[in-house]
């Protein structure tokens, strides 16, 4: 069966088969936003089922900006990394890959977690629940954008150091990378907004910074929307163009989602 065959990624690393678990939010981090034994147990069970690639739920790159109360966070200043190492150690028991999904929520963060969310532009989330759950974001400064790019790179570097076999950028589902790609949510007039080429600059710079941090032989993937399915949002054709651009830069795996 084709699904049992291995597949070689552009970076040279081989996945053991073509069965992958897409990210699902575990919502199990402890009060310090660190992974505990539960993660080792859960991913051990998936790995035992011979799932060749297990992509984790959100691993946030900034503890000040969470999508959910019990997100895992991987950023500078964390002293206790044992939980991450034990989580990654599952790969030694089974021939599988575990890739942390690295993310920043942007404005899609509940107001009980983040009083002042940030986004490409100061545009409300515009959902039925927005007034009650999501505060209007503040527009990111150029310096803050550069800091976020560095945070993605640091999280990727640490993922490799801690033993994970690859990483995925979360560029879909209305989170920050997705917001930059969307003309509805990104109405900046500087180099980060306007044309599709400008709107995709953020994710391209994230990828390039991560690649520099982890080297040429470490897998980096991304999850992007096939389209936002919203008026004035990121379109199907734009998704194709972003996929082509990232592929041209050498990204290893592109997961297509939507909405």
If you had to describe this structure to a student in words, what would you say it looks like?
There is one protein chain. The chain is built from 8 helices and 11 strands. The chain is of the alpha/beta class and 259 residues long. Strands 3, 4, 5, 6, 9, 10 and 11 form a 7-stranded parallel sheet that branches. Strands 1-2 form a two-stranded antiparallel sheet. It has a two-stranded parallel ribbon with strand order 7-8. The longest helix has 21 residues.
Topology of this structure?
Layout: E1 7-8, E2 14-15, E3 20-21, H1 37-48, E4 53-60, E5 72-73, H2 82-93, E6 97-103, E7 118-119, H3 130-133, E8 138-139, H4 142-162, E9 167-171, H5 176-181, H6 196-199, H7 201-214, E10 220-225, H8 236-249, E11 253-257
Parallel strand pairs: 3-4, 4-5, 4-6, 6-9, 7-8, 9-10, 10-11
Antiparallel strand pairs: 1-2
Helix pairs in contact: 1-2, 4-7
CA(first)-CA(last) distance: 32 Å
DSSP helix fraction: 25-40%
- Identify the quaternary structure here: single chain
* β-strand amount: 15-25%
Taken from the alpha-carbon principal axes, the silhouette is globular
SSE order, as H and E?
Answer: EEEHEEHEEHEHEHHHEHE
Query: Main beta sheet, described?
Result: 7 strands, parallel
Number of helices: 8
Radius of gyration: 18 Å
Low-confidence stretches: none
Structural class: alpha/beta
Give the tally of β-strands.
11
Average pLDDT, rounded to a whole number, is: 95
């Amino acid at each position: 069966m084709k699904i049992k065959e291995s597949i070689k990624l552009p970076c040279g690393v081989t996945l053991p088969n073509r069965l992958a678990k897409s990210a699902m939010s575990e919502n199990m981090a402890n009060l310090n936003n660190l992974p505990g034994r539960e993660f080792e147990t859960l991913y051990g069970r998936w790995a035992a089922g011979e799932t060749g690639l297990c992509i984790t739920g959100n691993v946030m790159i900034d503890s000040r900006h969470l999508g959910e109360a019990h997100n895992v966070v991987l950023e500078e200043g964390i002293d206790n990394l044992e939980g991450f190492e034990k989580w990654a150690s599952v790969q030694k028991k089974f021939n599988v890959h575990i890739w942390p999904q690295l993310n920043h929520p942007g404005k899609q963060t509940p107001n009980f977690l983040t009083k002042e969310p940030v986004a490409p532009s100061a545009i409300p989330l515009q959902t039925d629940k927005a007034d009650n759950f999501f505060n209007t974001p503040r527009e990111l400064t150029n310096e803050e954008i550069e800091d976020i790019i560095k945070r993605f790179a640091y999280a990727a570097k640490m993922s490799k150091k801690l033993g994970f076999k690859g990483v995925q950028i979360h560029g879909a589902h209305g989170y920050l990378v997705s917001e930059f790609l969307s003309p509805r949510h990104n109405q900046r007039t500087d180099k980060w907004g306007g044309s599709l080429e400008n709107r995709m600059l953020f994710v391209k710079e994230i990828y390039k910074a991560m690649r520099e941090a982890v080297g040429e032989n470490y897998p980096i993937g991304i999850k992007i929307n096939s389209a936002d399915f919203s008026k004035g949002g990121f379109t199907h054709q734009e998704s194709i163009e972003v996929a082509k651009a990232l592929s041209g830069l050498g990204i290893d795996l592109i997961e297509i989602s939507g909405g």
